[in-house]
Amino acid sequence: MDRDDRDDPFGDIFDEIERMMNGMAGGEPADESGFGTETHVSAYVEDDTVRLVADLPGVSKEGLSLQCDGEALTISAVSDRREYEERVTLPARVDEHSASATFNNGVLEVTFDRADDAAAIDVE
């Protein structure tokens, strides 16, 4: 007798578990970056600073490259099996020359000083 999968109340759960397992085992990635849903980037504005935190599992410090233009941060990461590049728009304008970054256990943290929103202009 053939089984009717439409009546399986656990079918969606098993499909999701299989998709997650494939992603962890290097199967089909969830998106074009290759890191899929396991990559997460958050940005925070704290007083006079902007802090970005990115989860980059499986990446080494040597595989990271960061670029900032004051309005966005581009994170490029390469591991043995994956390549990742994301341009993150920052929540506030920053002084890109003030950047400091740490990378520990797959977690990247980048901190910037906020740039002044406006500059006074002297009239002569």
What does this structure look like?
By secondary structure, the protein is mostly beta strands. The chain has a single domain (5-114), classed as Immunoglobulin-like, CATH 2.60.40. It contains one helix and seven strands; from the N terminus they run αβββββββ. The strands form two sheets. It has a four-stranded antiparallel beta sheet with strand order 1-2-7-6, with no helix packed on it. A hairpin with a 2-residue loop joins strand 1 (40-46) and strand 2 (49-55). The protein is elongated, with a radius of gyration of 21 Å. The model is unreliable at 27-37 (pLDDT under 50).
Spatial order of strands in the largest sheet:
1-2-7-6
One letter per element, helices H and strands E, the order comes to HEEEEEEE
Average pLDDT value? 79
Could you give the count of β-strands? 7
> How many individual helices?
1
Percent strand equals 35-45%
> Per the principal axes of the C-alpha atoms, what is the gross shape?
elongated
Distance between the termini: 92 Å
The whole-angstrom Rg is 21 Å
Biggest β-sheet, characterized?
A: 4 strands, antiparallel
By CATH reckoning, the class would read Mainly Beta
- Within the CATH hierarchy, at the fold level, what is the topology? Immunoglobulin-like
Keywords:
single chain; 124 residues; mainly beta; Immunoglobulin-like; 7 strands
Gist of the model:
Helices cover 11% and strands 42% of the residues.
List the helices and strands and how they pair.
Elements: H1 11-24, E1 40-46, E2 49-55, E3 64-68, E4 72-78, E5 83-89, E6 94-104, E7 107-114
